[in-house]
Amino acid sequence: MAGASLFTLLDDIATILDDVAAMSKVAAKKTAGVLGDDLALNAQQVSGVKADRELPVVWAVAKGSMKNKAILVPAALAISAFVPWLIQPLLMIGGAFLCYEGFEKLAHKYLHSPAEDAAHKAEHRAVVANPAVDVCALEQEKIKGAVRTDFILSAEIIVISLGTMNGEPFIEQAATLVAVAILMTVGVYGLVGGIVKMDDAGLYLSQKANALARGIGRGLLAAAPRLMKILAVVGTAAMFMVGGGIIAHAIPAVHHFSEGVAASVAGVPGVGGVLAAIAPTIVDALVGVLVGAAVLVVVMLVQKMRGKKSAAH
């Protein structure tokens, strides 16, 4: 009997681990948009730091990220246990925020003039070059800013992940959220560390005597800025697809429309299967763009009203 009980326990544990692995994959897929943005944003946050301080800064932000998730995971589990009805509204808010962030990035060049961006960059370079500025204090400010940004992005990741597990046993939700929190932090900040040191590795290799090493070094130097641009573009597109998908699936009429579009293109000779597969994603992205635009308009109106109230006082 004892042996049978042990095997039953082991079977239950294996089943739970299998479920956790499956849910972790789904959660990782759903949070792809946030991760792309997280990578680009954190790599940009470290820019301007001295080369020998880049990895220590990334490590400091990574530790801050783990502290953020140590707060967010128990909070998410408490919501799931005591107020599960709140998951869907939080998911919708997170999706709308993703769409807003994506659309704000697209609209940035129209909302801010090139002169404003150039002035901001010049001000940043002047601060860094000023010998009177406390470099350690500046570094700590960058770390604090990055950790604050990470808190928002981590909250989105946790809420979206929790939304994929609605109705699952509590122990599996807890194990999955912990696994997602650890894997996302290690993955994101490991890649950020690699990205910010790519140009240093390229410079090192480009100075070697070996022709192959020099070629690889020059390739890395050329690829580093392009990789940042690619990450930014892919991250923005994924934000629309993920955020729009969350909202589209929560609104039956939009979800049925998406299914209808997929069914209508499925009969196209030769490429019907491919079109049917990508059609829902395109609809999700379009929904994301529309929602992002609407939220941005509301935010700008609120800011304008606040500005008028401040001027009146």
Can you give a write-up of this model?
This protein is mostly helical. The protein is 88% helix and 0% strand. It has 11 helices and no strands. It has helices spanning 2-30, 32-46, 54-82, 87-111, 114-129, 135-163, 170-196, 198-206, 211-250, 252-265, 272-312. The protein is globular. The chain starts with a helix and ends with a helix.
Based on the model shown, name its key terms.
313 residues; mainly alpha; 0% strand; globular; disordered N terminus
Describe the structure in brief.
This protein is mainly alpha-helical and 313 residues long. The chain has helices spanning 2-30, 32-46, 54-82, 87-111, 114-129, 135-163, 170-196, 198-206, 211-250, 252-265, 272-312. It contains 11 helices and no strands.
Strand content: under 5%
Q: What is the N-to-C order of secondary-structure elements (H for helix, E for strand)? A: HHHHHHHHHHH
Instruction: Determine the structural class based on helices, strands and strand pairing.
Output: mainly alpha
The value of Rg in angstroms is 23 Å
Q: Return residue spans where pLDDT drops below 50 for at least 5 consecutive residues.
A: 1-21
Measured distance between first and last alpha carbons? 79 Å
Determine the number of helices (DSSP H or I, runs of at least 4 residues).
Answer: 11
Proportion in helices: over 70%
**Number of DSSP-assigned strands:** 0
